[in-house]
Amino acid sequence: MSTSKQSYKELAIPHFKEVFDIIDRVLTGLGIPYYLIGVSAISLELLQSGIKPARGTKDIDFAIMIASLSEFQEVVRALKKDGFNKVEAPWTIYHPAFGVVVDLLPFGEIEQEHTVNFNERFTDLHVLGLKEVLSKAKLIPIEENFVKIPPLPGMVLLKLIAWSDRPEDRPNDLYDILLIIEHYFELEYDEIITRHHDIFPEDDFNQLKIAARVLGRHARSYMLESPKVSERILSVLDQNIDSPAESVIAKRWARQKGWNLEFAVELLMELKKGLVEK
């Protein structure tokens, strides 16, 4: 694996830097903490280890910590002055000159039972897990600046939660989770060898299974912080482990990689083991 850090320019996102600069300037000026999340954050994290993005997107997702809907509306008004337009979903803006869609996902004091209510039509933007995962955000350089992103174990939980909220609309979440598992052994090789050798089997040594187990161990801290996060994640995993023939996640992974269904379910089982073991 190449260990040379790659530039954000390797992202397959046109005008990423221009959009980031606007978001950074506006939100910093308003004193609002923000975080890059979603596939762009995953790609930036992998680029730090020389792994180029596996898929591109024209959407960029930011989580913003705010206290009220009026504060969110102030953010949108400020961004409109820099060329962004509102679209139907109240948390989405679009920059026609750049052709980039940006989702602004508010969390923090604005939340009510892990949900943000915008209006009568859009009342179900779920932000479960954001607060816990982003409390451990890491800094990634963007030229002379930095952006905060969630650690990969946290991204896996956020992706599972987002997918479970709208599985019919978010098939790429499952692809992104598997991508993290596929690279996690090499990314955490030194720690796995020195601190997780207890899970090495005497035979049938499989890096993906070990990676899934360690990923679960690393994500466990978020589960301990929030019973709601723990309940949701374990429910999603159980639904996709207990009945393999009906497991949407396992069937998607097996079809994508040409695996048998049993192996895909075993990966989910290893992830769960890591999440629940003490």
User: Which CATH architecture of the largest domain would you pick?
Assistant: 2-Layer Sandwich
| Helical coverage, percent range | 40-55%
- Please name the CATH topology of the largest domain: Beta Polymerase, domain 2
Give the helix tally: 11
Q: How many discrete structural domains?
A: 2
Unreliable stretches: none
- Distance between termini? 31 Å
- Sheet bearing the most strands, described? 5 strands, mixed
Descriptive tags:
278 residues; Beta Polymerase, domain 2; alpha+beta; globular; single chain; 9 strands; five-stranded mixed β-sheet; 11 helices; two-stranded antiparallel sheet
Describe the structure concisely for a colleague.
This protein is an alpha+beta fold. The chain has helices spanning 16-30, 39-47, 69-80, 130-134, 152-165, 172-187, 189-195, 207-225, 227-241, 248-257, 261-276; strands spanning 34-37, 59-65, 85-86, 92-95, 100-107, 115-116, 125-126, 138-142, 145-149. The protein contains eleven helices and nine strands.
Explain what this protein looks like in three dimensions.
The chain contains eleven helices and nine strands. It is of the alpha+beta class and 278 residues long. The chain folds into two domains: 8-150, Beta Polymerase, domain 2 (2-Layer Sandwich), CATH 3.30.460; 172-276, no CATH class. The strands form three sheets. A five-stranded mixed beta sheet has the order 1-2-5-4-3. A two-stranded antiparallel sheet has the order 6-7. Strand 6 (115-116) and strand 7 (125-126) form a beta hairpin. Helix 10 crosses helix 11 (261-276). The longest helix has 19 residues, at 207-225. The protein is globular.
